[in-house]
């Protein structure tokens, strides 16, 4: 595996192998790699950015970070020229988070530098998809027949696009519920089996619920009447929490009292901090797999 752009590029065998590596790193496996890794984050990030940096350092890789104002992209340089420049400087990998999608990716993948997607627009966030999958396997064991429900802003969610078909690959059943204005027209590529009309029926069905962040920064029109009405219709309230059969996840950051009521974020049915903790080992496994042979 030279790059990680999308979870759709991964076979079940590759995901199984990444899970084994992840388990080994979580269990204390130590490895040393050589070289430099660039982190170019044109969108904000706490979890992904710091856990990728920790993963690089766990593997003895040197890290160089640039935000939106620290690269010549601010002066109009294209992402393509940025990739070529970093490749010429000898960077082994570029971990990128960007507000756009780099279609066609093929033109970027010919460079010697490895590309690792840390979130591109609403397209993909592959390591978050792997975090959610691996956390669910740890907590539930086999995912065969497990009912996984994504709640909320499905249309703008790269977390949903990365994770849902991974759950489906592991024979889980995937359902979605959210405002009709925030559901993509065609959900079949993502392995979705059930689209619910109301949250109560959806929660009764689900064994694991993944709340998504309402991504207002990507809204081009008024998709919902208000955040208050969204919370009342879809958010995790105390009443709904009591009815959850299993655990819930959220990739973070949480819109407090919009996606989830404040007091519920770190309760016993919450896997949010486990997802954060596991992020370091998932990213260590991915970096190791991408860079170990080169
Ligand atoms: N889950 C996630 O991508 O969080 P950050 O935006 O904080 O990296």
UniProtKB/TrEMBL annotation:
* InterPro entries assigned: Asp/Orn_carbamoyltranf_P-bd (IPR006132), Asp/Orn_carbamoylTrfase (IPR006130), Asp/Orn_carbamoylTrfase_sf (IPR036901), Asp_carbamoyltransf_Asp/Orn-bd (IPR006131)
GO molecular function terms attached to this record:
amino acid binding; carboxyl- or carbamoyltransferase activity
Q: Name one GO cellular component term.
A: cytosol
Keywords, alphabetical:
Transferase
Question: Which residues does the UniProt record annotate as the domain Aspartate/ornithine carbamoyltransferase Asp/Orn-binding?
Answer: 144-288
Domain of life of the source:
Bacteria
Do the record's keywords include Transferase? yes
Pfam families per UniProt:
OTCace, OTCace_N
Q: Which GO terms describe its biological process?
A: 'de novo' UMP biosynthetic process; amino acid metabolic process
Domain Aspartate/ornithine carbamoyltransferase carbamoyl-P binding span(s) in chain numbering: 2-137
The answer to whether keyword Transferase applies is: yes
Q: Which family does it belong to?
A: Belongs to the aspartate/ornithine carbamoyltransferase superfamily.
The record's NCBIfam families line, in alphabetical order, gives: PRK00856.1
Q: Indicate what this protein is called per its UniProt record.
A: Aspartate carbamoyltransferase
Q: Which organism is it from?
A: Hydrogenobacter thermophilus (strain DSM 6534 / IAM 12695 / TK-6)
